[in-house]
Amino acid sequence: MQHVSSQVDLQAPSASGGTVPQGPVSPGAYTWLWAAVLLVAVLLAANGKLLQGKAAPHWDAADFFGPEYSLVADHVRAHRLLAWNPWTSGGTPDFAEPELGTSSPILLLTAALFPKPTGFVAYWMLIWVGGGLGMLVFARSLRCPAWGALVAALGFTASGFFVGHAEHTSSLFSVAFLPWICWRFDDALLRGRYWSAVQAGVLYGLSGLGGYPQFTILTPGFLAVWAVGRILFTDTTDGGPVATDQIRRPRVLRAIAYLLLVGIIGGLIFCPPYLGFLTETHGYSDRVGPRSRLESISSNTLPTGAISTLASPYLFLLSYSQLPGHLWPASDIAMSSIYSGAVVTVLAMVALLKRSRWRWWLALLALFYLCCAVGNQLPLRGLLYDYVFVTRYFRNASMFSVYSIFLLCLLAALAARDVERIAEPAGPETRKFFVLCFVISSAAGVSFLLVCRQAQVLPWRFDLAVVHLAVVWLGMVATALLLVLRLVTIRRCVQLLVVLAVFDGFVSIIIAKPVLYESRIVAPWQEMDRDHIASLDMTSKGFFRRLNPPQAELNDWNIPPKVAVLNSYWPPLRNRFLEKLVIDPTLREFALGQQRLWFSNQAVELPPTDDLYAKFADNVRSRHSPILILHTPEQMKDISVPEEVRAVGHEPAAAMPASLDQLEAATLANIGVLAYFPNVLQFQYQAPSDGWLMITDRWAPGWKAEVNGKSEQVYGADFLFRAVKVEAGMNTVSLRYRPRTWKPSIVVSWGTLLLFFVCAAVRFARNRRLSAR
Length: 773
Fold this sequence. Notes:
Layout: E1 12-13, E2 19-20, H1 27-46, H2 48-51, E3 56-57, H3 60-77, H4 105-113, H5 120-141, H6 146-157, H7 160-164, H8 169-191, H9 194-208, H10 213-233, H11 252-269, H12 271-280, H13 293-298, H14 342-351, H15 357-373, H16 380-387, H17 401-420, H18 428-454, H19 463-484, H20 490-511, H21 513-516, E4 517-518, H22 522-531, H23 576-582, H24 585-589, E5 597-600, E6 604-605, H25 610-623, E7 629-631, H26 633-636, H27 643-649, E8 667-668, E9 671-677, E10 680-687, E11 691-698, E12 703-707, E13 710-712, E14 715-717, E15 721-726, E16 729-737, H28 742-772
Parallel strand pairs: 6-7
Antiparallel strand pairs: 1-2, 3-4, 5-8, 5-11, 7-14, 9-10, 10-16, 11-15, 12-13, 12-16, 14-15
């Protein structure tokens, strides 16, 4: 039997339950180092055009995450944290959106080192590389050989999820943490270490600061089912501790304690945006609360036909809406690939040849998450919606598939050890390997041809896709055949598999270039860099606001040059009243330009309903002047309640008037701006009488007002904006954004992280003293 020199280095247990290295670094450690270097080299080389500035991210990465990243960087360099963004959609509570990572130490540090929009590329690649390194570390802890871990890491980072969701930076951020979280949680289960569970909780918390909320919800459930498998089916040959006498089957109560520890610590760390979401978005957006059952199970599902993408990274590109065949139009192109690499797919099947209940449990979980990913095409996602309440808070069923990809890669890493232990090249194990390679490769080839035919595309017109298909799948068959015929040793077979995996990962990213980045975005990105204004002081510009970004497209490219717009791209927290207003030439006029504050000595207080908005819009169009309708903070929150629910469970504060014509039209208010920053607005206004002043910046619960030194309620006005009461004569008005959970939650979050690092330093120092004795 031949072996590859990639075994995990044995380490002796320390008195504290950790490990102390014995002697000099072994050759195996260098093997792991080279695996990490090769992984990073593949990822950087495959994205060479991006790193050289010859291409730039597009879609959500360019239109949303990149510009928002630059705004976070501007705040960091000004020694502030981003809370309110006045340049987007009339004002947005950015700190309350978890995807933006405004309180994430990782994003803040990266933004400090690499500011401006183009610095976003560094953050993007950091996430990508971090996910791959995490897979290497986790596979090492499972006692997989280095080459198998490299194959798994390449399959994970070049998978259909990573390339398909490259535009969705927050999704990549969450998933990149998945192997790191599982690494520490699995260590806690196998070795009974509460400190490992604490580490898993910290990693989970960091993943929630800047990650997509769907994964923040789903990952604890994944850890729970992982723990069930470890409790019932622990196999010491598949990831047990190095010293077998330390193996302890995890008990149910201990596993529950670990899960609670992960959840509590993680929740404390990622609480700033989530508490902000709970307190600041009701009344600001109508896209809060549970999603409808129909939306949750049918929105952006993984098409069953997309399971064929296991054959090639090219096939999901056929779902691009601009192609004639346009496969799977019901789902976004990002949701239509589960490709994980040919070597990964074959090795994952090889892993199941061994009689291991633990491996079959992982395979069952992979199948479970895949069935959830297809959404309404199977009943499982609907059952989760009905019986697991937290799953009602997200859509995009296809995203369940990343856990299937993750488990497939882990099974491949576990199988690598089986390949090394093949007793003889022409034995029964080798013949099974050859049969699997032949059957799976044949199925991949047939699937590729059938899908191309369905899309009415001639596959041979795409040289790289066909070359990739032939090299990886025929290469797998050829490698197995050479082994059967005794033409290569086990060691040489392993080397060929690594070469195939490297080629597969590199070319898969190249093939997916249309969904990663494009050259035409380079000029706008460079222009954003040139026009970038780091200052957060808007006092000199006053209240000037335009309708659309300078490029007249729905994006956030106006943020770097600090141009305020009303109609921009901010998908997380939509508002139906804003969407109606921006398409109405008459209504939107009053919230644009330099003069957009309005005074009225008459106002009516009414709840913001759709019926009232229709009457309001007709009235304003007819008189070509705004009127003032006030909404209390409690009434503003009703916009998040469905109309039918509100009709049953909420009584209006006042009867709707028969006509709004009785209200006098508001008049422009000429003010003197004293200070205008993202979180602060101060000005003076000479009021002709007692009345109300409407500021056409968006309302949110965290806005507080003082008029002539006295606290005043900030009302909602005309469904979207703010209004304060003023007195006849000169008024000094000060509005400040002070959400009640913002600063306390950041203290809790960063305090938890600080406490963790202090404890880690103490443990490290203690272990050093013990090892020196």
